[in-house]
Amino acid sequence: MVKYTDAQLDRTFGALVDQTRRTILARLGREAGVSVSELAKPFAITLPGVMKHLDVLEDAGLITRSKEGRTVTVRLRPDPMKGALEWLRRQESFWSRRLDRLAEYAEREEVKASKRSR
Amino acid sequence: MTSLTLVRRIRARPAIVFAALSTPEGITHWWGPDAGPVLLAESDARVGGRFRVRFRMLDGSEHEAVGEYIEVVDGKRLVMTWQWAFGGEPDEGAEVSSVTIDLRAIDTGTELTFTHARLQTENSCRSHTCGWNGALDKLERYLS
Questions:
Q1: Which positions ≥6 away from B104 have C-beta within 8 Å?
Q2: Residue B112: helix, strand or coil by DSSP?
Q3: Model confidence, pTM
Q4: What is this model's ipTM?
Q5: Which of A69, A70, A71, A40 is nearest to A54 (CA)?
Q6: From the list A17, A82, A91, which residue is nearest B129 (CB)?
Q7: Inter-chain CB proximity A3 and B112 less than 8 Å
Q8: Cβ-based neighbour number of residue B104 at 10 Å
Q9: Which residue has the higher pLDDT, A72 or A14?
Q10: Which DSSP symbol is given to B108?
């Protein structure tokens, strides 16, 4: 069982907060390896702008870049996202079960209160 | 900055849901995540007041959460700090987080919006990485 540190989680969530970076990750999820210039095409920002986003994603360990000749190919590295998802799921399951119990209790109390006021 | 938001529609009026959330009597009925008992419930639901709840889970482990009420709007809103005094998530330690609960009256009762977030500190959260939202769905789409 892999343990994900708080620092890693903060980097992952920090990287995912940005729409452009999420779009890049989504594309890398569909296509196995994409060149930097191809990745930059759909965006109305400059190539250096895209490079900055790629730096953030690489720092977070979410992508790898490899140079082949004059082309830099970008690939998805999904492990940190799995860590983030696992953390969220654990939190969600804990609170979700508690809110279910709260709802059941409140609904029983509502039935009692309605009977009393009748 | 990481946060979790959950929404529930409950067939009970907001005043009843609010009492279930904030009174010691209410808390004893639902606080634990499984059918294990609540062993201790203290709650002083006013700004600056504190809560302390200890519960035992079916696996025998005991946990205690403590916190302080930051905002209290009767029947509508609760904001509190949240911290494990003992037990809880092993890798979370005694980190302080914040819990916000908003209640809204709807035709069928109450819509409850629950948000659990880590407290923002200058070190762990620069402004552009804060306020991160709804990423569970997005992550699931990426990974599917």
A1: B14, B76, B110, B111, B113
A2: strand
A3: 0.66
A4: 0.76
A5: A40
A6: A17
A7: no
A8: 13
A9: A72
A10: T
